[in-house]
Design brief:
This protein is an alpha+beta fold and 88 residues long. The protein is built from two helices and four strands; from the N terminus they run ααββββ.
Length: 88
């Protein structure tokens, strides 16, 4: 059975990755806040754009919860964050 990668899936995946990579636990409210921040380009730094078959992925750095800078991937076609990456 194929996994449906919808907004709820992306929330859970992002939540897990932020916990693993930054020791930050987020709620759905936090996730929606992050998505809106990226969508409105408010206090975020665009790191790169990558072409994908399901829409371009935009990677951003942003400060969150006084834990320093986190890196997230946003899919403009879908309109939400799909994961969090480790900054190198």
């Amino acid at each position: 059975m194929k996994t449906v990668k919808d907004r709820n899936y992306s929330f859970n995946h992002t939540k897990q990755r932020l916990l693993e990579r930054y020791d930050i636990d987020i709620s759905m409210e936090d996730y929606n806040y992050l998505c809106k921040r990226v969508e409105s380009n408010r206090d975020v730094l665009l790191v790169m754009i990558e072409k994908q078959k399901d829409g371009d992925q935009y990677t951003y750095d942003l400060n969150f919860k006084y834990r320093g800078v986190v890196r997230v991937v946003y899919n403009k076609e879908k309109g939400y964050i799909t994961t969090a990456l480790r900054r190198i």
